[in-house]
Amino acid sequence: MADPSSKNDRPWREFFDAFPFHKYLGIEVEASEPGHARIAIPTGPSVDGGVSGSVHGGILAALVDIAMLEAVLPTFEEGDQPGGTIDLGITYLRPALGTRITVEADVVRRGREIVHTEVSIRDDQDRLCARGRVLYKIRRKA
């Protein structure tokens, strides 16, 4: 597991850990390295509200975006600055049920200004519940 407390080479780590929405969701960073990340959340009343008592689809979409950032930000080079999510798509395959949801993001391609990532959401029985795709913009400092 990556050390999420290491702030020397991860300037965003402190911000992410303190972000109120991340705290509300109970996000645990299990891995965050260049091109790959894995986060998890416990299920419960604060995130449930979907079909059959599953995790709400809007929460799952937010987790796609959050996991993507955990995979993309470690790929930043000197002069790179966050530009924001350009496009986010999610396909819901089954209700996300159980006690814990795990979200894994992988960088598929990183260009100079656009990063393409794919994200998988799994329940506590390792069943694939949703797939996400995200395009993220990197601004280059002149």
User: Which residues form runs of ≥5 with pLDDT under 50?
Assistant: 1-8
Gross geometry: globular
The CATH first-level class comes to Alpha Beta
Percent helix among the residues? 10-25%
Main sheet record: 6 strands, antiparallel
Q: CATH homologous superfamily?
A: Hotdog Thioesterase
Assess the beta-strand content as a share of residues: 35-45%
Extended strand count? 6
**Assembly type:** single chain
The name CATH uses for the topology is: Thiol Ester Dehydrase, Chain A
Please trace the helix and strand order, writing H or E for each element.
Answer: HHEEHEEEE
Plain-language structure description:
This protein is of the alpha+beta class. The protein has one domain (13-140): Thiol Ester Dehydrase, Chain A, CATH 3.10.129.10. Helix content is 20%, strand content 42%. The chain contains three helices and six strands. The protein has helices spanning 13-18, 20-25, 57-72, and strands spanning 28-33, 36-42, 80-92, 100-110, 114-122, 128-140. It has a six-stranded antiparallel sheet, with helices on one face. The protein is globular, with a radius of gyration of 15 Å. It starts with 12 loop residues before the first helix and ends with a strand. 29% of the residues are buried. The model is unreliable at 1-8 (pLDDT under 50).
